[in-house]
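Protocol step 4 of 6: record predicted structures for both targets in the notebook before any analysis. Target 1:
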Amino acid sequence: MPDIRSGLRLALLADALIRLFIWSNAFIVTASAFTRLGLWPQSDPLRMTWDTAGLWGMRLSLFAVIYNLVYVAHLIVLRLLIPTPREGRYSVKPGQRPPMPVVWSCFIGALTKARLDPPFPAFLVLHVANLPPMCWLMNRLFGPRSQSCFYTEPYVLDPHLVEIGRNVVLGFNATLAGHYVERDVVVYKRTIIEDNVVVGGDVKILGGVHVKCGAVIGAGSVLLPNTIVGENEFWWGVPARKFRTLGPAEATAP
């Protein structure tokens, strides 16, 4: 059987290069802007007084804000350069050249990792990506297509294949994917979360799942591929199954 390590190592190398490019280029742009605008304090940072320490603190905070804006802008621009993979089934047999939609998905995955796990000083990426005006661009161009706002960033592995409605609550460490893998096959299929849905912490939602309005998914559940959760239904378990139908007033986190 062919060894798949070479292909995975190549993908890992590409991931590292993309993330290094985003991190370093955002730093170069921000530092250059600071220099051209004369924003660096003139005092020696190693010999600070209270006044100069306060000035350095404010300027470094401004540096962090600008850096994070530039970082998110890089994510958007790079995403525009990658073709959006179509839904479908693609063969990924060892030893065969991977289909281009799978290759594009790997590049999108690298950008997604750069968003979900940003290095210092990109500790405000969550905030920048979810607040206007950048959230409008991220929602439309990067994904997921969401009409909700989240206090913690959910793990959306295929943002171009995930749609989230209004007033959706995603618990801590919830993971949403727009794909699933079978033997020698990867399937890309859209995942849809409708309005007023509550998803508990550590829930895993795989490709092709459709959660309808007002449904509740209990913490730690796993929704298998192509599962359809009806309106105001409570599902829980591994794999998740329907426990009962909720009244409209009961559609809150269990």
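Target 2:
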Amino acid sequence: KQQKAMEQRLAQLEESCRQKEAERVDLELRLTEVKEKLKKSLTGGMLGASVESKPTIK
């Protein structure tokens, strides 16, 4: 009985871990996108125009 509870808890933790990893990947992709936009604006000299535009959030 105790082993069954431990296996169930392990399954819950693994699922939680998968969700957190997916969230981390999403945040990393969004961060990369922001960095790219910032780099483009800095090299293009259009920082003011870029800052005023609204960011797209999924």
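Step 5 preliminary note on target 2. Helices lie at 2-44, 47-52. The chain has one domain: 2-51.
Proceed to step 6 after PI sign-off.
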